[in-house]
Protein backbone atom coordinates (compact mmCIF):
# COMPACT_ATOMS: atom_id res chain seq x y z
CA UNK A 1 0.00 0.00 0.00
CA UNK A 2 2.86 2.39 0.76
CA UNK A 3 4.44 1.78 -2.65
CA UNK A 4 1.13 2.60 -4.34
CA UNK A 5 0.86 5.84 -2.34
CA UNK A 6 4.43 6.83 -3.24
CA UNK A 7 3.74 6.12 -6.92
CA UNK A 8 0.57 8.24 -6.77
CA UNK A 9 2.37 11.13 -5.05
CA UNK A 10 5.25 11.09 -7.56
CA UNK A 11 2.99 10.95 -10.60
CA UNK A 12 0.57 13.57 -9.24
CA UNK A 13 3.45 15.88 -8.33
CA UNK A 14 4.98 15.37 -11.77
CA UNK A 15 1.73 16.16 -13.56
CA UNK A 16 1.21 19.24 -11.36
CA UNK A 17 4.70 20.55 -12.11
CA UNK A 18 4.31 19.92 -15.85
CA UNK A 19 1.13 22.02 -15.84
CA UNK A 20 3.01 25.00 -14.32
CA UNK A 21 4.78 27.70 -16.29
CA UNK A 22 8.51 27.75 -16.67
CA UNK A 23 11.10 25.44 -18.13
CA UNK A 24 12.67 24.44 -14.80
CA UNK A 25 9.30 23.33 -13.39
CA UNK A 26 8.69 21.31 -16.53
CA UNK A 27 12.03 19.56 -16.08
CA UNK A 28 11.30 18.80 -12.41
CA UNK A 29 7.84 17.52 -13.35
CA UNK A 30 9.17 15.17 -16.01
CA UNK A 31 11.80 13.88 -13.60
CA UNK A 32 9.18 13.18 -10.92
CA UNK A 33 6.96 11.52 -13.50
CA UNK A 34 9.79 9.27 -14.70
CA UNK A 35 10.61 8.25 -11.12
CA UNK A 36 6.96 7.39 -10.51
CA UNK A 37 6.74 5.30 -13.68
CA UNK A 38 9.99 3.49 -12.82
CA UNK A 39 8.62 2.61 -9.40
CA UNK A 40 5.36 1.48 -11.03
CA UNK A 41 7.23 -0.86 -13.37
CA UNK A 42 9.20 -2.32 -10.48
CA UNK A 43 6.07 -2.75 -8.36
CA UNK A 44 4.24 -4.45 -11.23
CA UNK A 45 7.14 -6.84 -11.83
CA UNK A 46 7.58 -7.96 -8.23
CA UNK A 47 4.45 -9.51 -6.72
CA UNK A 48 6.21 -10.90 -3.67
CA UNK A 49 9.78 -11.00 -2.44
CA UNK A 50 11.80 -13.51 -4.38
CA UNK A 51 15.42 -14.54 -4.61
CA UNK A 52 18.00 -12.80 -6.76
CA UNK A 53 17.81 -13.86 -10.41
CA UNK A 54 21.12 -15.73 -10.19
CA UNK A 55 20.83 -19.37 -11.16
CA UNK A 56 23.40 -20.62 -8.64
CA UNK A 57 21.37 -19.20 -5.71
CA UNK A 58 17.77 -19.97 -6.69
CA UNK A 59 15.76 -22.12 -9.03
CA UNK A 60 13.78 -20.58 -11.88
CA UNK A 61 10.46 -20.73 -10.00
CA UNK A 62 11.95 -18.96 -6.94
CA UNK A 63 13.97 -16.29 -8.80
CA UNK A 64 12.68 -12.79 -9.43
CA UNK A 65 11.97 -11.71 -12.99
CA UNK A 66 14.97 -9.66 -14.20
CA UNK A 67 13.10 -8.02 -17.08
CA UNK A 68 11.39 -5.22 -15.07
CA UNK A 69 14.71 -4.44 -13.44
CA UNK A 70 16.37 -4.19 -16.85
CA UNK A 71 13.56 -1.92 -18.09
CA UNK A 72 13.91 0.38 -15.09
CA UNK A 73 17.68 0.53 -15.40
CA UNK A 74 17.32 1.52 -19.06
CA UNK A 75 14.63 4.07 -18.20
CA UNK A 76 16.85 5.63 -15.53
CA UNK A 77 19.66 6.13 -18.03
CA UNK A 78 17.31 7.58 -20.65
CA UNK A 79 15.62 9.94 -18.17
CA UNK A 80 19.00 11.14 -16.89
CA UNK A 81 20.16 11.91 -20.43
CA UNK A 82 16.91 13.67 -21.37
CA UNK A 83 17.03 15.70 -18.13
CA UNK A 84 20.57 16.79 -18.98
CA UNK A 85 19.49 17.85 -22.48
CA UNK A 86 16.51 19.78 -21.12
CA UNK A 87 18.68 21.54 -18.54
CA UNK A 88 21.09 22.62 -21.29
CA UNK A 89 18.18 23.88 -23.37
CA UNK A 90 16.83 25.76 -20.38
CA UNK A 91 20.23 27.35 -19.76
CA UNK A 92 20.66 28.40 -23.39
CA UNK A 93 17.04 29.26 -24.00
CA UNK A 94 16.06 32.87 -24.30
CA UNK A 95 12.42 32.92 -23.37
CA UNK A 96 10.26 30.40 -21.53
CA UNK A 97 7.10 32.51 -21.53
CA UNK A 98 7.75 34.08 -18.15
CA UNK A 99 8.28 37.72 -17.33
CA UNK A 100 11.70 39.27 -17.35
CA UNK A 101 13.10 42.71 -16.65
CA UNK A 102 15.52 42.47 -19.54
CA UNK A 103 14.82 44.46 -22.69
CA UNK A 104 14.54 42.69 -26.05
CA UNK A 105 17.54 44.66 -27.35
CA UNK A 106 19.70 43.37 -24.51
CA UNK A 107 18.53 39.80 -25.15
CA UNK A 108 19.37 40.12 -28.85
CA UNK A 109 22.83 41.39 -27.98
CA UNK A 110 23.44 38.43 -25.66
CA UNK A 111 22.27 35.96 -28.29
CA UNK A 112 24.49 37.40 -31.01
CA UNK A 113 27.36 35.24 -29.75
CA UNK A 114 25.23 32.09 -30.13
CA UNK A 115 24.19 32.75 -33.72
CA UNK A 116 25.94 31.05 -36.61
CA UNK A 117 26.41 32.66 -39.97
CA UNK A 118 26.42 29.48 -42.06
CA UNK A 119 27.48 30.07 -45.66
CA UNK A 120 27.54 33.82 -45.18
CA UNK A 121 30.48 33.59 -42.80
CA UNK A 122 33.68 35.06 -44.07
CA UNK A 123 36.54 37.34 -43.18
CA UNK A 124 35.69 41.04 -43.05
CA UNK A 125 38.46 43.39 -44.09
CA UNK A 126 38.96 45.94 -41.28
CA UNK A 127 39.19 48.81 -43.80
CA UNK A 128 35.95 47.98 -45.64
CA UNK A 129 32.64 49.81 -45.35
CA UNK A 130 31.08 46.64 -43.98
CA UNK A 131 33.46 46.69 -41.01
CA UNK A 132 32.71 50.39 -40.45
CA UNK A 133 28.94 49.76 -40.42
CA UNK A 134 29.39 46.86 -38.01
CA UNK A 135 31.47 49.00 -35.65
CA UNK A 136 28.86 51.76 -35.74
CA UNK A 137 26.08 49.28 -35.05
CA UNK A 138 27.94 47.75 -32.11
CA UNK A 139 28.77 51.20 -30.71
CA UNK A 140 25.10 52.20 -30.97
CA UNK A 141 24.05 49.02 -29.18
CA UNK A 142 26.55 49.67 -26.40
CA UNK A 143 25.38 53.26 -26.09
CA UNK A 144 21.73 52.21 -25.75
CA UNK A 145 22.60 49.70 -23.02
CA UNK A 146 25.09 51.67 -20.93
CA UNK A 147 23.17 51.09 -17.70
CA UNK A 148 23.86 47.32 -17.90
CA UNK A 149 27.57 47.62 -17.29
CA UNK A 150 30.63 49.72 -17.94
CA UNK A 151 32.17 49.79 -21.37
CA UNK A 152 35.79 50.50 -21.92
CA UNK A 153 36.73 52.88 -24.70
CA UNK A 154 40.19 54.07 -25.45
CA UNK A 155 40.64 57.41 -27.09
CA UNK A 156 44.10 57.99 -28.40
CA UNK A 157 45.19 59.70 -31.58
CA UNK A 158 48.18 58.97 -33.76
CA UNK A 159 51.35 60.76 -32.80
CA UNK A 160 50.18 61.41 -29.24
CA UNK A 161 52.50 60.05 -26.57
CA UNK A 162 51.97 59.72 -22.87
Automatic annotation (TrEMBL):
Q: Which UniProt keywords are listed?
A: Cell membrane, Membrane, Transmembrane, Transmembrane helix
Q: Where in the cell is it found?
A: Cell membrane
Annotated spans, Disordered: 114-162
Carries keyword Transmembrane? Answer: yes
Membrane topology, as annotated, equals:
Multi-pass membrane protein
Ranges of Basic and acidic residues composition bias in the record: 120-141
PANTHER family in alphabetical order: ANTIPORTER SUBUNIT MNHC2-RELATED (PTHR34583:SF2)
In Swiss-Prot or TrEMBL terms, this protein is called Na(+)/H(+) antiporter subunit C
Q: Which GO cellular component does the record give, naming just one?
A: plasma membrane
The keyword Transmembrane helix is annotated on this UniProt entry: yes
Show the InterPro entries listed in the entry: CPA3_antiporter_subunitC, NUOK/Mnh_C1-like
The entry sums up its family as follows: Belongs to the CPA3 antiporters (TC 2.A.63) subunit C family.
Query: Any transmembrane segments, and where?
Result: 27-49, 70-92
User: Record's NCBIfam families?
Assistant: PRK07375.2-1
Instruction: Point out the gene that encodes the protein.
Output: mrpC
Recorded hits in Gene3D superfamilies, A to Z, give: 1.10.287.3510
Bias type Low complexity, positions: 151-162
Amino acid sequence: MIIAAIIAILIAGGVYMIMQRGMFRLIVGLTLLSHGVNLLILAAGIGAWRFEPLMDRATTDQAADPLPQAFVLTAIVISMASTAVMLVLAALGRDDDTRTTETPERSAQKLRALQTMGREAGHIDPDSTRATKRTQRDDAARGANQHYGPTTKTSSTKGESK
